[in-house]
Structure formats: structure tokens, C-alpha cells
Amino acid sequence: MTSGIKSSSDLTSLRQQLLDLFCQLAYQSGDFVLSSGQKSSYYINGKQVTLHPQGALAIGRLLLSMLPEDTQAVAGLTLGADPIVSAVSVISALENRPIPALIVRKEAKGHGTKAYVEGPNLPDGAKVVVLEDVVTTGQSAMKAVERLRQAGYTVEEVISLVDRKQGGEEFYQSVGLKFSAVFGIEEIQERDKQLKV
Asked: N vs C: which end of the chain shows fewer Cβ within 10 Å?
């Protein structure tokens, strides 16, 4: 709908809003153990932003702008990616570029089709981009990549809202996946300090 300069300035402003939401709602200092088992001096609870109305809107618009033109669906591992893929799918419909969302279960459904992947049926080989809230080692989104490939889809890229810079990008490169993130952790930490002054 929007194009050119207005669009990129809109995206810059949305990115700044999203950065501030991550600092205000999701970023916490302290002693934490991550899902990877690693200890950390900070934690990012992405759901505080991905389930926030303005957060979801900004995420949908920003991630849609990062998707390759030939993307046929977005997908992610439940539960962290559920609001992200939903936001992108809704915004894609508003932008007349409808992209369905797929949700990848951690365990196969115990009844019915016993499927790992929920969502519209797509043609074999459909190009799917995996979305994630926070990447540390990269293993979580990799489960989604593997399940989607087993279901017959083509997955070549992972996009995360936040990269903790703890090996995720290098891991994806080592298995031939493209990877990008909206924010690196250092940008969130820097902005968090500015907001606390």
C-alpha cells in the first residue's frame, strides 16, 4: 500500500517503537537459566512484546518487509512463534500480499492427523520462512525447520526478532540457512541504558 521513502521512514519509526517496547516490557537483568541450559545475566521475555497490540503490529509490518518476495508461508515453533507468525499473516492480508501462517508443534498431535505442522495445506516444496522471537544457540527454530522439511516444504531462512549473539547465526550458516534478526542484543542493552538515565 505504501511505497518508497514514506514506507522506509515508517519502518524506521516502527523499529524504534519495537526497540523501546523490548526495553520497557521484555528485557530484564538478573541471574537466569535459558532454555538452552546456559546461564545468563539477562533475560528477554519476548511474549511481553509479541502479544502486545502495538508490538504485534510493528512485528507484523517489520518482518513482512524482511521476507523474500517468493515466500509462500511463515512458520515457527509453538509457543514463542505463534503470535509472530499470526501478526505477519494478518498484516500480509492488509498489504494485499497474503501469506499464511503455520505453527509447528513440539510433539506430534496425539489424535486425528497426528500432524506436527498446523495451518493451511500448501503445495509440496512451498517456500516457508521460519520466524522466532529470540535466538540463542539456534536449536529451537531448527526443530521447526526440520519438521517443515519433513512435511515437504522448502526452508532456507530463519528470521528472529532478537539475536542474543551466542552462536545462533554461526549455527544456521553451518547448516546452510540464511539468518537475520531485527535486533542484536547489544542494541537492546544500549537502548535500555539510555531509557534508564
From this structure: C
